[in-house]
Amino acid sequence: MREWFKKGEHWIWFSASTVSISVVLVFGLLAMISYKGLIHFWPHDVYHVEVQHENGDREVVIGELHDSKVKEIDDVAAPHGKREIPQYLFKVGNRDVYGIDFRWVSSADIVGGIDTLEKDIVVVERYEYGNVYGHIKSVTIDGKTVSDPQESLALLSKQVKKGTELHSEIKYIEKIEIGAINYKIEGLRLEEKKLRANGDFNDEEAARLNAERAEYQKDFDKHHQAAQDLYKQTDTLGSVELAIAGNKTLTVPVKKIVHFWQPNNFSLMERVGFFFNSVGNFLLDDPREANTEGGVFPAIIGTVTMVMLMAVFVTPMGVIAAIYMSEYAKEGIVLRMVRISINNLAGVPSIVFGIFGLGFFVYIMGSSIDELFYSYALPSPTFGSPGLLWASLTMALLTLPVVIVSTQEGLSRIPRALREGGLALGATKSETIMRIILPMTMPAIMTGLILAIARAAGEVAPLMLVGVVKLAPELPLDMVAPFVHLDRKFMHLGFHIYDVGFQSPNVEASQPLVYATSLLLVLIILGLNLGAIMIRNKLREKYKSLDN
Amino acid sequence: MSSRAEIALDKALKGPEFEKRVRRRNAKDAASTFGISIGGIGVILSVLLIMFFLLYVVLPLFVPATVEKHAQYGIPGTQNEKTLYYGMDEYQETALRFTASGKLFGFDVANGKQISLDSLPLSGQHITSFTVVSEIGNVLAFSLSDGTVLIAKYGYDVSYPNNVRTITPKVEYPFGEEAIELASAPIEKLAVKQNDSDLVFAYKELGSDQIVIKQFSKIESMLSDTITLEEGYVGAFESKNAADWLELDGSMRNLYVISKDGVADYYNLSDIESPALVQHVNMLPSGEHLTTVRFLLGDYSLMLGTDKGNVIQWFPVRDNNNDFAIHEIRSFKVGDSPIHSIAIEKNRKGFATTDASGQFNLYHSTADRHLNSTQVIENGSTGFVMISNRANGALVETSDGQLVHYLIENHHPDVSVSSLWGKVWYEGYSEPAYVWQSSSASADFEPKFSMTPLTFGTIKAALYSMLFAVPIAVLAAIFTAFFMDKQTRQWVKPSVELIEALPTVILGFLAGLWLAPYMESHLPGFFSLLIIVPIGIVAFGLAWSKLPESIRLRLPVGKRAVLMIPVVIFLGWISLQLSAPLENAFFDGDMRHWLTFNAGIDFDQRNAMVIGFAMGFALIPTIFSVTEDAIYNVPSYLINGSLALGASGWQTLVGVVLPTASPGIFSAIMLGFGRGVGETMIVLMASGNTPLMETNLFEGMRTLSANLAVEMPEAAVDSSHYRVLFLSGLVLFIFTFIFNTLAEVVRQRMRRKYGSL
Predict the structure, then answer these.
(1) Which chain A residues touch B541 with a CB distance below 8 Å?
(2) pTM of the entire predicted model
(3) Which of A46, A375, A503, A541 sits in a 20 to 30 Å window from B484, CA-based?
């Protein structure tokens, strides 16, 4: 045994174990995020639990089981004077009636088991106040009441479907059509302000602006009326009366219902269907209830727009700088220092880029742009406040070293002979670079770019200073010219995680959503990283023949 | 045929067509060379711009104040009279001079021309004493010879006739033009302070040793704007000390009776009806005499000017028994000439002095800074001085009857090297301390910009996470590079490096909302991890060596990491399962409770231990991949040589590989530390963000980066707060720059060394 220690065998086992620990941590973390993120979409069974209070009152709790923990209670009889009692967290919904969605129940108070499923329970997801858990008593349309269970279920499902269609029509009118008109009217207001500021405002212009405005107003009224009509139609969808736990009834107008389901009656296939449906809603819906419900569509759009815009900035900057440094600049002390600086820049904390972005881009460049081109809109800032353009420029600067270093590496791999060959055949230096060197460097450039995108998608700290908001009223990308709105603030998946996880008033209710968002972000970033590796390998393969 | 080809070739390579093409191509080449050079240099410059921009924002913090003479003229109004007070409007266009006879001279600041003349409603009496009620509110109190007190408020009207701004000074009487009846005899010394509900007077009648305190309640009339006063508590005491100055502080609870030779009696007025003498103290160095006394902004600190040129700051300090006593805090001295007058800034804790040598000096108390000295008059002295509302101008009287208006550029007096990095004795604190507290709701708030707790927090967070990351990452890299077979290495390396790609916001979220509460409830489990896992590993290794060779040989050394995966999971699970039994056995069933009450260690849920695990995890890939590279690149003939000489695998590693790769490992650790220093989201979400200076494992911290993320969006552009935040960004930048450069230099040196091997 002494020999064993002397040979350092225990150290080998230690070091082997640290590898295992790291691997376990990585995959454990990914597994946990995946599990907690995906479970959010899977239909939860709804349990029926009877609770007896200390005063002898009995109460029925109906809800989804979300968590459990062990609570220690002083008990002289038990060893160590403590007794462990399991506690269960139920999502009981009906927030407008009970006040809270979640409720801890102690197993000591439970009469009978906790694994009784509530028969035929209906879960109704609403646009406001979260879910309802209850039994359908009756459905009322136009004063006519249907209370047969089968019939009312079928009727409700028909009405909810109608409601969903109406809602999407209303959303289209309000967000897209009226949004576009509002944007144009705002444009007119600014144009008038601009004319006045320049002293060019005269009766002719006023007449023209008013005519245009009247035109838009007419359009607006038309769409507004259409939306109002649809709203009126939603009022005629009727309402459903539900019996909820605690011998109460709750009447929910159909227009407030997103969808409803009967989890305890689901077959496996229906569960899978529900799962994918929920995933789809999560990806494509707008957030509701202060971001704690609904989907993350605007955050996805915000992240993608910002990252794409960043790619547009960072690619030429990085590639040109890299070409200059390795093909044109003279080797020497200056170049070496520049190289070290750029390497170092990769290690500079991201938040430092954030304050640079805020101080330089927003406060100095933004204010100057406002003064030069948008002075008529002042004091309300156009580019002088955090927004998409500044966020993507800041991110471009942050990821610049990634692109430069990767491109330079690619350039340095290309054999000298190819450059000399190009020059010997009479090509100019720029032709050699453009036609021979750059195409061969493409894999390296692409890799750098994708790694830059992956980094930018996951970075949150600098964005908090230069343009991300918790809830953006408008998307940075829409159907109104100029389509990409550089001055708008936007939402971002990473910031969404921070905001919903830490600033939301109802942490328990929002946690599943945060896990789901985390999973989405992890998948995007891992996907990008894998993509970078794959593209690199593929393109390397393609140019391998050239290498030899 | 050949001739035709030659002709074609000739045509292609000669003639005007060809030359044109060559010229075009050359021009294109030159243009692209130019373009790429400009672009490349531009990009590089913009990268360097970051550092210079940070410096550009930070530098104004340390620029001394400039004082520029704007105008000089004879003192407006009757010159042989004493000035009691100057009021000036925000734009420094007009001013109002209050004189001892109750005259109010309004004048144009630019040229001294009188624009209005008014007088206080004295109703035939004369002024016996004068005091400032509120510096910010420009509220003044005058006691009259019949024992009454008149309270006046300076203000100004702004109007825009013909689009030109016109300012006219004015005086209002918040409690009516009729003087308040207070004493039966003329008042010699008066002190008045007010808050929203009360008005408190302290006074000494001429020829009496009694000091009387009277409190009035303000009653706002429902119908009109007038405020009537209702007399409340009255108190009095006999002062044994000569009352050359009578000073009531802003809280209206502390009263100071101060004599010319610097002896102060400090009374507590918590109960107005029975004032209590708290302290009798000599406030000056021996041989010095008081010349002037003034409260600093906030009416808490006393600033004492002496005949030897000292300005000494005193304020009441609470001791451990909750008793107050006044202490000398700091003193300022430029010359030896007696101080004539002290003026305070109305928006921060700065002040100005004039003295017998004709100087005008600017200071800031918290930052302990002397900002400017200006010689106002040769061969004369400077007298009464006032500072404008925005602290961007001053009026100074000179002994030859002149009034000088100065324009002051003094943007960041509140920041100095000592206030940023040293201990500062802030108002209301019982001792000098390192404090970061950048903003508050009150107007007379003393901002506390100490970078020390933030820097401390940053280093604490980084060190605790290194404690977790370095052993794991370095050992794992050693195994991966030296022992592991190629097959396993191919997937182990990218999986560990995968961590680098994980967004830190997700790690922070998990650390703050999952790990922190979990760790709180399984605290003993996490400590038993540190013991059980290593012991378990060694035990497993020993047991393995006792297995029959046929089984042992089936698993080469390089695959041990795979074998250990279930073992490690099992050991970790066991440790955490042991948490509750351990807690019951050693910590009375609740370790957190035990720590707080039995061991006296404070415990926060979001603490350094959580940060250590979470950020340590994030640092693993950085350290791992650089170390791995360094070890993997050690030339194989060195290793083979050592093995051939009979050394075991581990002995070769320790004796040959590690020494060769040590610079690489060092640079890996430096890179890891640099990353830990700058990490933002994890600390922001899991550290609690309280700026503490405790090394305690169970308490949180606030780091420079998290502080930036929290406070930057709210900081007003170009304020001291904004610039100090940029300074903390610069500190971060320099930190990481140093660590990264060190790592880079060491790595390059190592590469050269390998080259020679």
Answers:
(1) 4, 9-10, 12-13
(2) 0.89
(3) A541
